[in-house]
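Blinded run. Sample ID left blank on purpose so nobody reads anything into the name before looking at the predicted structure. Input follows.
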Amino acid sequence: MNARAARTAAATGTSRLLTRPMLLLLVASVGGMGGFYLLLSVLPLYAATAGGGGVGAGLTTGAMMLATVLAEPAVPWALARFGHRAVVGAGLLLLGLPSAVLCLWSSFPLTLGVCLARGVGLGIVVVAGTALAAELAPPGRRSESLGLYGVSLGVPSVLGLPAGVWLSDRLGFEPVFLMTATLTLLALPAVAGLPARRATRGERLSGDPDGRKGDPGGRNGELGGRSEDPGARNGAPDGPLGAAVNRSLVRPTLILGAATFASGVLVTFLPLALLGGPSHLAVVALLVQASVAPLARWGAGWWGDRHGSSSLLLPAVLAVALGTAGLVRLESPVMVIVSMVLFGAGFGAVQNLTLATMFERVPRSGFGRVSVVWNLAFDAGMGLGAVGFGLLIDRTGYPWGFAVTAALLLAVLVPAWHDRRYVQAETT
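Blinded prediction complete.
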């Protein structure tokens, strides 16, 4: 092969998104997140119908997100110590198997214990997967690669969120608990093909899961002595909290936390808010939101690689706020569905845009820490939304509760605007 042909082959390989490690990561993520979403709206219903009421429903999601937040900072250490295969495999088992215990005993404390175990599993899977998806991305296509990974997280929600509610209504809770355990076990074989350790540039370009072919681009993903990461110029500090103290990450983190606060409210309480309404409206609403979100996440990634991730943050946050505000009209099925379209589009875009923006602002060595910070904001927001809304609705009812949540999101338009101006100042 001559030099020109070699360069052409290298460029073709570089542009591939679906390398073998990436494909296996997507398979493992689909299985793990399928187990997560299948029970996400079911366990609050399970707790509420068992006498826990709105507070009990909120505590199930809150307990799971608390465990997730506590587990996530330890994941980079675990990956360095045990490797991707062992850590992701443990995360899948924790996401699925504890739910089967609820088929044997039924109590609210046991339900909270299952939620805690599932939260640890969720923290493992999302932190390890997010960092690995960024590392496996070819140069110049990181946002799109993260969008593709986001689809693997979002597609299970398309089926899992509405299917869990529908199946529990038709078959009861126990069959759904067993399905969750089975789904995560089926994803375990894909874990064997994940990189055993942190991916190198050689792995990203060659698809070699163990990195045995070396690192032709040089150490730490550098090519010709220059970092390929535009975020490296921001000089993110090193150490376990390096990403957290990078001031350029504060606004994207705040924006994501507010959006996931609203998401925690919706996935936990929308089925309860629509009880007694038109048949299957909750199932259809969750299906619409879950279908739109991954498409918006991938589309935002495509846009971000070509026009910059921060340019869409403002309209994305506005869409989330308007979608939440529309739920004040719970008596109107049309308004509920339109609101879910808006919310899904905005929420999916916010996920990709904030994540890609944060990766752009740190060097490659900070990817693991950014993954922790992003996922901490995501899960803390969901947990606080579920618990806070559960306490609020006992005093206000659902419509006013959704109105307060929408007002919180409108306030986040301010940091979204300032972040856009920050990026414009950096590029001029």
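Unblinding after everyone has recorded impressions. The chain has a mean pLDDT of 78.
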